[in-house]
Design goal:
mainly alpha, 3 helices, single chain
């Protein structure tokens, strides 16, 4: 298993863990990917003072549409000019943070 191969090295060298998120093309989410989304939603909701339910809903919707889009592109290919999405234009009102 891929996780078993990399996890020992990551623990010893980088003092971290290796968790590959697994998503299906139909919108299903593996248990570790679900933990990742929940953790990410918790951090974003705390940082941005937004409700957890809105943030987790946004993240799940965003991942599902992105997976659907890549599935459709892999089946039929690109038919139009690709436009890039700027982070500022996402549903969450993101702002630059000074460190």
């Amino acid at each position: 298993e891929k996780k078993g191969m990399y996890n020992q090295r990551v623990i010893q060298v980088e003092h971290a863990t290796f968790t590959p998120p697994v998503f299906s093309t139909s919108g299903g989410v593996g248990p570790e990917a679900d933990k990742l989304l929940r953790n990410l939603a918790d951090r974003i909701s705390t940082k941005r003072q937004e409700t957890y339910s809105h943030v987790i809903s946004f993240l799940r919707r965003r991942y599902r549409f992105d997976l659907l889009r890549t599935s459709v592109i892999s089946l039929r290919g690109h038919r139009s000019i690709s436009k890039s999405h700027k982070i500022k234009d996402l549903d969450l009102n993101l702002e630059k943070v000074a460190y």
